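User: I'm putting together notes for a lab meeting next week and I want to include a structural view of one of the chains we've been expressing. I don't have a solved structure, so I'd like a prediction I can at least talk through. The sequence is below, exactly as it appears in our construct file.
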Amino acid sequence: MKEQLRAIRGMNDILPGASERWQQFEQTVAQVLAAYGYQQIRLPIVEQTAVFERSIGDTTDIVQKEMYTFADRNGDRLTLRPEGTAGCVRAVLEHGLLNVQPQLRLWYNGPMFRHERPQKGRYRQFHQIGVETYGMAGPDIDAEILLLTARLWQALGLSGLRLEINTLGVAAEREHYRAALTAYFSAHRDALDADSLLRLERNPLRILDSKNPAMQALVSNAPRLDEFLEAESRAHFASVCATLDAAGIAYVVNPTLVRGLDYYSRTVFEWITTELGAQGTVCAGGRYDALVELMGGKPVPAIGFAMGIERLVELLAVQAGERSEASAELCVVSASEAESQAALLLAERLRDAHPGWRVVTVCGGGSLKSQMKRADRTGAAIALILGEDEVATATVSVKPMRGQGEQQRIALSELPTKLAALLTA
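Assistant: Thanks for the context. Below is the predicted structure for the 425-residue chain, given as structure tokens.
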């Protein structure tokens, strides 16, 4: 017996029912982004490895441990994208988009890949929607990004998300801070875990991102970055906070929030939920003013964020308190094979009259009883039955499948209007 083939560990199928929830989520996000002037860009899944080594930073866990990197048949080093920002910057530079439009608002979606230990909410193939802006240096775009994310939760009907923000200052300020952190953690070297010892040599700011409970007391007593900020960085962050206050958006300033990628500067943020266990961050990002230049372009200020689709769709299900499969509103049934063509054409007519309706036709023949069983499995609210008599009299038998209501005969000419009334009753 042949071994059953299965999906790769940490790479999951998205089945019917769940996929519809994903579509609804993606459509809502696309509508909100369009309202803020964002345009979609579609990016390759595979990039040259150098795209991520140069941008993310070769001291990060992503580059050191998690990337899917391989040599193709030409010997080129390629990587399945572990995040979207680096590829987006590469595309902006390659196609000269900033030459045409000095201020850009872009978004993308799709799968990302990291070789991590699979667990709930953290997979080896995961999906993100990313949002990137270029050419805007002031705190106003930082604030608008945060207002946009708050509006997304409102549009999706999500509640209880906590916003944490911080500022990482500019490069010179971080260098002074880095020296202070190095001195502090070097004095406590015996208390550092293995990952923190590596980070101490490469990038001590990353120690602040440690999730090891045994490290938390040491991290909380470390020097704070805000002690090293100059007036301009302080004013930038204060302006962002003032706009959030004016808009009535609650937030927490978290001085240990540094994010996991080396390219961030100034404003960084995370939206966090307590309803998904350990994997509570559902949206995160920040400013990366040096990245475009680092990747070969002229200096261009930029800020962006990514949201995890798996986690947000799961949170939507948790807060809705249901995991029901997608259902059709209408199901069309032919009493015999002779009426099957009429059933198909009726379904087309209803889709023309109401493009938003989900209309399923029971195909494959069989007795009326067996077809009605199949109609019931679609979850349809109403079954539309076409038999010899209905076809002859230009009528349809309308049978409610859920709740109260009697079966009735309705003329074809009146059907769309009366169905609309029944579906909204």
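A couple of points you could mention at the meeting. The domain at 330-424 is CATH 3.40.50.800 (Rossmann fold). The mean pLDDT is 88.

User: Perfect, that's what I needed.
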